[in-house]
Amino acid sequence: MSLTYMSGFGNDFETEALPGALPVGRNSPQKCPYGLYAEQLSGSPFTAPRAANQRSWVYRIRPSVLHSGRFEKADIGLWRTAPCREVEVPPGQMRWGPTEMPQEALTFVQGVRTMTTAGDAAAQGGMGAHMVFVTKSMTDEYFTDADGELLVVPQVGQLRFATEFGLIEAGPGEIVVLPRGMKFRVELVDGPARAYLCENYGGAFRLPERGPIGANCLANSRDFLTPVAAYEDREVPSTLYLKHAGALWKTTIGQSPLDVVAWHGNYAPYKYDLRTFSPVGAILFDHPDPSIFTVITAPSDTPGMANIDFVIFPERWLPAENTFRPPWYHINIMSEFMGLIYGQYDAKPHGFVPGGASLHNSMLPHGPDRDAFEHASNVKLEPVKLAGTMAFMFETRYAQTVTRYAADSASLQPDYQDCWSGLKKHFDPTKP
């Protein structure tokens, strides 16, 4: 299978691995070319408005009903689904260092370690924040998630996603989004891999509105890449794993389910290079809200209050004068699960390192640590470039619940809150 892509976010694509495999003028002709079966994969209700309708027609060697044999329960390991309240921790800011790569053989499905959950997957609202450790490629194994859309953020190593719609490869600095219900296999490319994973229980991610920014900057549609059709015609016993209602199930099938020869539509997996994001910021004083760094968003039923925002803090210039340049101290109704892909985050120069994570839950105060505050308050303000850095946030309207795995993790930093303890009292009523 070739590793080639089409560009554009949400476009209605059409692609075929064999000439003439796509029916012309009809979605479901009486007989499909090459003896294929027509099937529709829907990511939205049939009656959704045209602009919001997400579906793709696929033309495959065998229909998916042959992938739904007799399922039996499988070990879900440390993957958890909301609502999940298996441990109670006091409210407060939390931070974890990076977890070392496990020594045992772990496929993508086996290597998921849930850190937090929020909302309710059955009600199709909220999210799960996970770490994923992959030390072994999936061989004749496939996975599909009925509970949510998967946003994969590689942090160490390259991953290859063999999907029903084609091949995607991604490494640190890129993301991959796999729609709910999409079957795929994950393979290693250059050794063990570690990634952050957001499981979106709500509506699919989309590009945010730009408002007064206008037509340009932030993430541009043309930089999102969707794979061209590629298929496997392999008659081998295979295992299909299905995550459904918070449980993991498996069944044995007689062939690869990645047998889509052609497809057309707008419900498809995609990748995006975060380094193509064009940041926007203040060029005189102050700085806009962090939402200006939103790459993709999954809206909720409340306008302006997202189910999930995926926000990044990339390499950028800081030119503002008479301004405290790092993120200010704030208390936010949204809750923030944050990770660092590479480099250094300007508001936390110590302790927050690549592969680590932090949680600042709803209505809990947070902001720059002592060293970042003192430096930013006293440094000579000249244009400076934050180079070689890439941090991100899974931000959600729901409070996030910590799992037992995260609460008991050896990488949890129990002294994280001490980073603010040295903030001095500078108040002097005699000195305006």
Features:
432 residues; Jelly Rolls; 2 domains; 9-stranded antiparallel beta sheet; 36% strand; globular
3D architecture notes:
It is a single chain. By secondary structure, the chain is mainly β. It has two domains: 5-273, Jelly Rolls (Sandwich); 277-413, Jelly Rolls (Sandwich). The protein has two helices and 26 strands. The strands form five sheets. A nine-stranded antiparallel beta sheet has the order 1-16-20-13-10-15-8-7-26. The mean pLDDT is 95.
Concise account of the structure shown:
This protein is mostly beta strands and 432 residues long. The protein contains two helices and 26 strands.
How many DSSP-defined strands? 26
Oligomer: single chain
What name is given to the CATH topology of the largest domain? Jelly Rolls
Mean pLDDT: 95
Helix content: under 10%
Order of helices and strands: EEEEEEEEEEEEEEEEEEEEEEEEHEEH
- Give the total of domains: 2
What would the principal axes of the Cα set say about the shape?
globular
CA radius of gyration: 23 Å
Strand content is 35-45%
Distance between the first and last residues' Cα: 69 Å
CATH superfamily of the largest domain: Jelly Rolls
CATH top level class name of the largest domain: Mainly Beta
Biggest beta sheet summary: 9 strands, antiparallel
Structural class: mainly beta
Topology diagram in text:
Blueprint: E1 5-7, E2 13-16, E3 37-42, E4 55-60, E5 72-74, E6 94-96, E7 112-120, E8 125-134, E9 141-145, E10 149-156, E11 159-163, E12 166-170, E13 174-178, E14 184-188, E15 193-200, E16 224-227, E17 238-244, E18 247-253, E19 260-265, E20 270-273, E21 294-298, E22 308-318, E23 335-342, E24 357-360, H1 370-378, E25 384-396, E26 401-402, H2 404-408
